[in-house]
Structures are given as C-alpha cells and as structure tokens.
Design brief:
Distance between the termini: 69 Å
Strand content: 25-35%
Structural class: alpha+beta
Strand order of the largest sheet: 6-2-3-4-18-17-16-10-14
Shape: elongated
Largest sheet: 9 strands, antiparallel
C-alpha cells in the first residue's frame, strides 16, 4: 500500500467508535441537561464524552459520560483530520475532539424505539408541585404511554436463550443497543440503533458544527453533600411562581458555646420569594439530610429560581447531590448518577450545574 492509499485509509477510519447495549443510562445523563437547543460535545480517549450546554451566560451544565460506561470505546488520536479555522492551537490538541450538535435530536434518536426511559433513582417522593401545569412535553407523555404498553408486552414475553439476545437485553426487559461513530470535523455523528437481534435497525446521521466557546466559570468553595431525595422534596414544596431562591449556610456552632443572646442559626437554609410571598426552610446538621457539611463562615447567595428549576431532571436521576458556593456566590450543584458497567459492577457519573448569583445578592 503506497503513501496516498494509507492516508486515504486513515481518513476513512473514524475518530470514535463506541457501543453500548443499553442506552437508558446514557439518555438519562443527556436529559439531565436538555434545556438548550444546542450542546458542545467533547470526545477524549480517557475521559469519554463531555456534553455542555449554557443559558443566558449565567447557567452552565455539563454531563460526564465516561468511557467505561460503554461496551466498546475506541478513540483514535493518530488520525489526520481537518482542522477547524475557529479553534486555537490549544484546542487543536489531537487527544480530544469537540463539536456542536442539537442535543434534543440526539436524545430523540436514542429513544427511537421508545425504550430509553428509566425510573428515577431518587426514590418514591409523592410531591408533584414542582411541575407547573402543562410542563410535560408531548414526548414525555408519549414515553409514559409507551412504558405502560411495554410492561404489558413484557408480562407475556418469553426469555431469550441465545447469547446475542442476552447481549441485547434478553428476557422481559426491552433495551436499545446503540453504536456511535464520528469521523472528525465536518462529519456527522452517526448513530446505529437496534432493539433486539432479530428486529429492525436504524441509522441516524446528526449534522455537527464547530463548537462555540462556553462561559468559563472556575470554582473553589466549601461543600455540602445532601441526599437527592431530600433536596427534591424540599424544592417540591416551593411555589413554582417563585422568582428568586436563596441558599444560606452557617458554620457548626462550637460545642458547649452558650447561646444566650440569640438562638443557634440553622446550618442550612433555603428561602424562596415571589409575588405571593416568601417561604423559608431551615435544616439542622442531620446526617440523614446533610451527609457531609463543610462551612467555615456564613455564606448566602440568591439565584434565579428558573435556573435552579433546570436541575430537576438531573436531580431525579441522581442519588446524592453536592451543593457548593464560593466567595463570589457561584453555585455548583453536582449530581451523582450511578451507571452499571458493561461487565458487571457500578460506576459513578456526574451531572454538574454552575450558576452565577444575582447581582448584589451575595452575603457573608
């Protein structure tokens, strides 16, 4: 094979090929940040896939889909690829590749068979007030209807015995297998999908474009680790018409210190205000609520309630939440999402939100 033939073969080889036998967990990580029309995607040999969206230059959300979530992960760093004129020399590092896609289109493709929805891992909260009337989209209503039909089909299904059917999910639980392929700058993201070994297959090509730079929000602050079930229940008590939400943390009082002049301040406090009044919820340093609490001085900051509401889907898929506020009032919410490994065991993934505080609404 001469030099020109080798170069042509390298160009035809995709930058990324990856496959997963159950897309539900990948879709859950994507849906957690699905509030913007377009998303920046970064592929890396070691880190996997990082998907980032932003809103109003004030809210930044990132979902981390690690390479060990996939049955197959092959990222080629030695392929000659066209270089975008909009990227700097640092961004042209071959160890990772970035592009922009319509996020909702990718999610719809992965759910083309209606089997990409999984129940929330947060547990059985009965609160529903967090949803405004009419908030659910037609897609969500369709998914709920599909779940009911799927359960009816599964009840009478016969478990598959072949190894290929077991790879596709086997038994009564229908799953969608996916294979991703990306050829580099200027190429579409190709998604191949199948529900079982004997059924139809679907191939989708999603157009990509050069990524736009996202807002840079570096963070360094104290940490509070809370139960996602508790946080979801707390937020569900708030009126959806609220305009502003404030988080306040106070250091733990010194043991034996007398509180004669004033009662002890709560370790953590949520205050929501709007046109119909103000709601305040105080929480002590209880391990059932605050698993880890680190606060060395009182801090409080306010944020747009609409921005905090964007975290709902990520919150529903998570088991633990890390809430941090730095000296500038920047809020970091990290949601721990457990994902099963293809060959057994569990792996932890994360969805992170960073939100700027409202002007002049930071207090110490």
């Amino acid at each position: 094979m001469d030099q020109s033939q080798r170069s042509e073969a390298e160009e035809l080889k995709p930058v990324l090929t990856a496959s997963v036998h159950d897309v539900r967990y990948i879709v859950a990580l994507l849906r957690g940040i699905n509030f913007a029309s377009r998303a920046s995607v970064t592929l890396s040999a070691d880190a996997g896939i990082t998907v980032t969206v932003e809103e109003a230059r004030s809210l930044l959300a990132t979902s981390y889909i690690y390479s060990d979530h996939f049955d197959e992960w092959n990222y080629s760093v030695d392929i000659i690829r066209p270089v975008s004129s909009q990227l700097s020399d640092a961004d042209n590092d071959p160890s990772y590749t970035s592009f922009e896609i319509p996020l909702n289109t990718l999610i719809e493709c992965l759910n083309i068979y209606g089997t990409a929805t999984m129940p929330s891992s947060g547990g059985g909260s009965a609160h529903k007030k967090w949803h405004r009337e009419g908030d659910r989209s037609d897609d969500e209503r369709y998914e709920e209807h599909q779940d009911v039909r799927q359960q009816a089909r599964d009840a009478s299904a016969v478990p598959a015995s072949s190894r290929i059917d077991q790879y596709f999910g086997g038994g009564n639980d229908k799953r969608t297998r996916a294979r991703l392929s990306y050829g580099g700058a200027g190429h579409p993201l190709t998604v191949w999908l199948a529900e079982d070994s004997s059924g139809p297959t679907t191939t989708c090509e999603i157009l990509t474009s050069d990524p736009e730079p996202n807002i840079d929000l570096p963070f360094d602050g104290d940490r509070t680790l809370v139960s996602s079930v508790w946080l979801r229940d707390a937020l569900s008590e708030l009126d959806p018409s609220c305009e502003k939400i404030t988080f306040i943390s106070n250091p733990v009082a010194e043991p034996g210190r007398l509180q004669r002049l004033a009662p002890a301040k709560p370790q953590f406090c949520i205050i929501a205000s709007g046109a119909f009044g103000t709601t305040e919820m105080d929480y002590p340093n209880d391990r059932e609520i605050l698993e880890t609490f680190e606060c060395f001085r009182s801090v409080g900051a306010s944020y747009r309630f609409a921005h905090i509401a964007r975290t709902l889907r990520a919150l529903q898929s998570s088991t633990k939440t890390s809430l941090r506020i730095d000296d500038e009032g920047l809020l970091s919410l990290q949601f721990l999402v457990p994902v099963p490994k293809p060959r057994g065991g569990m792996s932890d993934s994360f969805i992170e939100f960073r939100c700027l505080a409202l002007d002049e609404e930071v207090a110490f």
